[in-house]
From TrEMBL, chains A, B:
It comes from Niallia endozanthoxylica. Residues 159-306 form the PurM-like C-terminal domain. It comes from the Bacteria. This is Hydrogenase expression/formation protein HypE. Transmembrane segments: none annotated. InterPro entries: HypE (IPR011854), PurM-like_C_dom (IPR010918), PurM-like_C_sf (IPR036676), PurM-like_N (IPR016188), PurM-like_N_sf (IPR036921).
């Protein structure tokens, strides 16, 4: 068994073998959880649910692969909603001919990342399609987390003067993917930042009462994420370009290619709005953690309960301009 | 906006429009559930989780489409585990150029079927990939159901003499898909049986204490489903070929093509093992319901607690032979 064949997707003998030899091998198997479905107790009454499909190209990239990304992305979605990630399901759509060795490596990464972040992969599904009907491998992960009442976020408490903090440098994932494609002849050693933030976020929520909202600025980047927050919750944010942490090589690549790091995807960063009284404490916790070393206060809420919220950027040259959502195509298949 | 473009998948302005105009339009939107993730109370402590990706080809077929199938498939997976289907997430992987009109029709079917079966679509995700990187549209659905303690299935109670019942004719979905492909020049008016069985199953579980196990015989067909049960729970089943309900036109198509209906996929059938004292009551309930009119007792448990369980078929000519899992390719992309 070296390559995936259509028969691996038929639900018969070969599907059984594939599940045993590739998935159960890495994900394990228990009374509670079978690969096709799971029945399990949930230790609370309020849960968070999120789903994402991963179509990243290439499947392996500096700093990770599609499997690691599928776990970290779903874990982070749950964590920023104030939930403790609990279980994840995984659906694999595989192209006929895909090397089993690569599939095993990807599944192994998923298992490792799931263990690190303390989630169980409880249910799965595999489909195989003919060569040319999917580009290698897509993965869907759906995550369920348990909301901790005492950590429930309070976006309605956002007020003028609140601080906006980002946990580290932005744009790393976007540039790492671009660079891995080598489409642009771009050679950098930027690695994707893809990482599970749940332990860091849990520590922040446990220590700091004044965290109003958190988001993970993935597709569309930091700017799009903040625009959506401004619109959804009717406040205005002003961010200070000079305070936004960007790696030199990421900025360099952006300058050459004409990209703005504010619109590039991140896969291991959290942006949060915090009571300004708590900002130093939040920064201390972040900087003390491997995944938050480059955290920075990047701006503040300049008006709350606005009719229509907006995102403003104070540029390095002192002018202020409004930022909108990412518009049009910039980087397809970034996650 | 007539066709999907890559920019619809970038997480920016066009993604926002797509979600508003296509998904929220059909799925609705509430305080609790946003399209990207959801936070909601779950009315019990034990839940069932299942995930499936749908890659069916063609996307529209007699009796349904990929969207309806994604809902019924996930609802049925939950229902046969004894759970009340509660919420569903939906992940869309869309090919650039896909007609928005078709996407709307599919999403509309999903919303209609979800309403019929009483589940809420609470979270979603869309990814767009370049032309040629996926064949039209794949959908992943993950479902969460609530286990009713009093309806918990008891596979460990299976004993010699228990009856095996199937809720209707088998192989309809398989032949409908084959026929829709027109690859074989086959013209039948067989429709897919795809339907949500949760209300029927709920009624059965409420009325009959002696239901030991239920399964939905999808990929791999009735035979593969029964072989898996026999192996997992160490019993032997003998089914009587003459009692297995098969539509005449399905049997005719199978005869011409060399398929065995026992190995063809079903998307609206349940097979169950029931205390033989309850078999008549189960049949009555089934036959009284639109989705169970052709229900039939097809066999019985001939030994339980066997070292290695197996599936035996008493053929129409009186011989008995062992059936195995589906082996090798028969019908790719059936669901």
């Amino acid at each position: 068994m070296q390559r995936i064949s259509l028969a691996h997707g038929e639900g018969g003998e070969l599907t059984h073998q594939l599940i045993q030899e590739v998935f159960i091998q890495s994900f394990g198997h228990s009374e509670q959880t079978q690969f096709d479905s799971a029945i399990l107790p949930i230790p609370s009454q309020t849960i968070a649910i999120t789903t994402d499909s991963y179509v990243v190209k290439p499947i392996f990239f500096p700093g990770g692969n599609i499997g690691k990304l599928a776990i970290t992305g779903t874990v982070n979605d749950l964590a920023v909603s104030g939930a403790i990630p609990h279980v994840i399901t995984a659906g694999f759509m595989i192209e006929e001919g895909f090397p089993i060795k690569n599939l095993k490596e990807i599944v192994h990464s998923m298992a490792g990342e799931a263990e690190k972040s303390g989630v169980n992969i409880v249910a799965g599904d595999t489909k195989v399609v003919e060569k040319g009907s999917v580009d290698g491998l897509f993965i869907n992960t759906t995550g369920i987390g348990v909301i901790q009442e005492e950590h429930r976020l309070k976006p309605e408490m956002v007020q003028e003067g609140d601080s906006v903090i980002v946990s580290g440098t932005i744009g790393d994932h976007g540039i790492a993917i671009l660079s891995a494609r080598q489409e642009l002849g771009l050679l950098t050693d930027v690695k994707s930042d893809c990482a599970s933030l749940n332990h860091l976020i849990h520590e922040l929520l446990a220590e700091i009462k004044g965290i109003r909202i958190m988001r993970d600025p993935t597709r569309g980047g930091l700017a799009t994420t903040l625009v959506e927050l401004c619109e959804d919750f009717h406040f205005t944010v002003e961010i200070d370009e000079a305070s936004v942490p960007v790696r030199k090589d990421v900025q360099g690549a952006c300058d050459i290619l004409g990209y703005d790091p504010l619109y590039l995807a991140n896969e291991g960063k959290v942006v949060m709005i915090v009571d300004s009284n708590d900002k130093q404490k939040a920064l201390d916790i972040l900087k003390n953690h491997e995944l938050g070393r480059n955290a920075s206060v990047i701006g503040q809420i300049t008006s709350s309960h606005a009719q229509s919220g907006k995102l403003l950027l104070k540029t390095a040259v002192g002018t202020t301009r409004r930022l909108n959502r990412l518009s049009g195509q910039i980087l397809p298949r970034i996650c």
